[in-house]
Amino acid sequence: MRATVVFTVIAILAPAALAQPGPANGPYKVLKTARVGGEGGFDYIFAEPLSRRLYVPRNGAGHLMVFNLDTLEKVGEIASATAGGATVDPKSHHGFSTTRPAITMWDSETLQVLKTIDVGGRPDGILFDPFNERVWILSHEPPYATVIDGKEGKVVGTLDLGGGPEQAVSDGKGTIYVNISDKANIAVVDAKEMKVKAHYSVSSKGVSGGSGLAFDPKNRVLFAYYREPRPTVVIVNAANGNIITTLPTGTGVDTVAFNPATMEAISAEGGGTMTFIKEQSPTSFVVEQTLHTMEGAKTLTLDPKTNRLYTMSAEYEPAPPGAPMRSRGRPPIGPMIPGSFSILVVGKE
Asked: Which long-range contacts (CB under 8 A, 24 or more apart) does 311-316 make?
């Protein structure tokens, strides 16, 4: 991605169509690339800062890899968890992964499977809400959300979010926000009552294909990411749904994060970049840096203790002639090169 001049956008003065990516040079670097190998595809990556563990689900190969967050040395795995995503309740030390057709619950200290929990739909995203110690399972098919008690491991309810969800965030005070991928809106959910209170529409910006969602708890700002018709983040006032501004991102955003220590929203992009947006004030934002990472590195997780980010990808053989396009118009690829799966650590030197 080419380097360009950084600019600031205030309120709604500049549409995303006229915006340009941020500079390649900046404070963030790929500090470490660890070729950890292993078989299977990959989707979400999750850091648990208290136990200093990093969870890497390998879908298709039937295992959940666990690494030391500081050294990236492998500390174990859960062989029976064909997971897309994972999370941990730090109080009960219960881990959960979005396996199909049932959710896998495991002990995060021993990595022993405790039980499986039947849920409907097509589970994908996962969120632990510290407000009431519940795990939210997000599905691309009804029921769009299944809520599990983190301590007991029991389903306490389901709800219709009004469309297929992607990433969700909690304010820690009883409200959950969910990016509804097929509706160009953000669902505002009462975490206690498990009811949708509102939908914040961003359709006026002409965006579709919602993916990541990040949240600034101090200023109550939401960063909602969309893939079409061009990669865009719509920045929204979480209190009332008013759109503040839009900015460009890289191609293929999946998961994102907000770092309150640096006041930055960060997106991982399958096109091989990571975009850093600096919040200068509740109404002023700048594309601070576009960092080259690795093609396919579309998800990330933040370690709030070190302010480092983790993403992952692999290398692939060329696609065979005539191979069909993948989902979302992505070009075809061949088999994964054995041993090439890697974890990348991003931070400031």
From this structure: 311/45, 311/268, 311/274, 311/343, 311/344, 311/346, 312/42, 312/45, 312/56, 312/341, 312/342, 312/343, 312/344, 313/42, 313/341, 313/342, 313/344, 314/42, 314/340, 314/341, 314/342, 315/340, 316/340
